[in-house]
Amino acid sequence: MEQKLKDEVEARKTFAIISHPDAGKTTITEQLLLFGGAIRQAGTVKGKKTGKFATSDWMEIEKQRGISVTSSVMQFEYQGKKINILDTPGHEDFSEDTYRTLMAVDSAVMVIDSGKGIEPQTKKLFQVCRMRGIPIFTFINKLDRDGKEPLELLEELEEVLKIDSYPMNWPIGMGRGLLGLYDNYNKRIEIHHPDINGINGEKIVELNAEGKIEGDHPIKKSSLYDQALDDIELLNEAGNDFSEEKIINGQLTPVFFGSALTNFGVQTFLDTFLNFAPSPSSHKDISGNKVPATNDEFSGFIFKIQANMNPAHRDRIAFIRICSGEFERGMDVTLARTKKKIKLSNSTQFMAESREMVQRAVAGDIIGLYDTGNFQIGDTIFEGKKCVEFEKLPQFTPEIFMKVSAKNVMKQKSFHKGVQQLVQEGAIQLYKTFHTEDYILGAVGQLQFEVFQYRMLHEYKSEVIMTPIGNKIARWIKPEQLDTSMSSSRNLLVRDRFDQPLFLFENQFAMHWFADKYPNVELTSLL
Ligand code: G4P
């Protein structure tokens, strides 16, 4: 690859922001977009109050509920870097899309509410990042409010998420008493509200070699300053050492404190984050070999397909993560699954406030291709003669289930077609009961069912009846170990779409009871 192109790839930073709802992901995203000059005012991303939807007004359901059903992509420039943020809905109704988006990023920013600590959705998303071994940067938000003690929050990271942490900065007070941030990494103090409390309008105070403020300074009068120094000393002695290698391997998370709403500590976070966040490097193919981002030839994989972006045209957009080389509009590629040649002429890129036709993009970027039914989730496309096929995207164990059937028995054909296509697309999981072959749908979030129902009606003209069968614990079993008499009233025996048998257990108790009764039967989950 030419040096110029290598530099372009090196300038890419592609990451996702993960959090539990209300931790402040949207607020922080907006601050980042403001720094990059990509939006002019806050409130553009979600637009809950203004009624303006910037990036994700694609589906009627999204509009009705004011949430982002599928992860959106935003690109902007900041200090010579091209930043791609992939949004993962933190809403509790999130779906497998949310998880798969994390397959397309090189690092993740985890936003935590300082008052609440680690919440369930953060934990789930964190686990997917961990499985991929990508670097995770932590931003502990809402420091302008009274929250948990900073040391307690670090302990939670280590105990709940089992990840080592390194505080890059440390709060001096919090809530109304927030005086500043002790920037342990840059050896300086960022003063909060520089124009009040008589702190002479200065924002940054450099520290001396001992890590203290030289001479007189109003902040030194506060016991909170002494407390922060004590904490830092304790952490320097007893805490984890800073290690860039461990950060890159996802074993150590650098922790930043701040307040997204009052824009305090956010820019320092962004600057430091961009220093350490990896640029695109390589992706593994199905044989486990690495395909470097700097390969001359273009390659990429589809991590999401979104239909109905424009209902008038019934279009579908396949989202591609470019893994190597350069994309040019109109180029010819091969689809690895079918070996079919495809011309990529109709493509789009996602800027903060709009979608634009993209002429050119490089490794690390995300592009959208208009799809007429060629693509499936997980597909690889590549340029040139040498076949590239990236490793399969993981499947996630569904947690909630519905029985589904066509309302109008005369319309079985469109019902089956719709179900097959949506399942292939990866929108939802399909199971069939063992003897009666009833259709059961499985999802990781309730919203997947709503999207399914909506799309069946609008795209396949098939009205469906969905009957909830509630939360279940899905466990696969080896076909040779299966005896249909193992099925009881506490579990439902079904087949997945690859004909593999699995039990849907009513609850943990039912599963443990089963495991005790059949100790030699191995039960496995996906991810
Ligand atoms: P999310 O995308 O993670 O769901 O969170 P979002 O940014 O929408 O923030 C959730 C709520 O928390 C919002 O208030 C937002 O203003 C507030 N918030 C975000 N960051 C901070 C912070 O640093 N400090 C404080 N005190 N609050 C913060 P809301 O009133 O629920 O929503 P909205 O009506 O303002 O959209």
Automatic annotation (TrEMBL):
InterPro entries: EF-G-like_DII, EFG_III/V, G_TR_CS, P-loop_NTPase, PrfC, RF3_C, RF3_dom_3_sf, RF3_GTP-bd. It comes from the Bacteria. GTP binds at residues 19-26, 87-91, 141-144. CDD domains: RF3. It is found in: Cytoplasm. SUPFAM superfamilies: EF-G C-terminal domain-like, P-loop containing nucleoside triphosphate hydrolases, Translation proteins. Residues 10-281 form the Tr-type G domain. It holds the Pfam family GTP_EFTU. One of its GO terms (molecular function) is translation release factor activity, codon specific. Keywords: Cytoplasm, GTP-binding, Nucleotide-binding, Protein biosynthesis. GO terms for biological process: regulation of translational termination. The keyword GTP-binding applies. One of its GO terms (cellular component) is cytosol. Belongs to the TRAFAC class translation factor GTPase superfamily. Classic translation factor GTPase family. PrfC subfamily. NCBIfam families: prfC, PRK00741.1, small_GTP. Increases the formation of ribosomal termination complexes and stimulates activities of RF-1 and RF-2. It binds guanine nucleotides and has strong preference for UGA stop codons. It may interact directly with the ribosome. The stimulation of RF-1 and RF-2 is significantly reduced by GTP and GDP, but not by GMP. This is Peptide chain release factor 3. It comes from Carnobacterium iners. The gene is prfC.
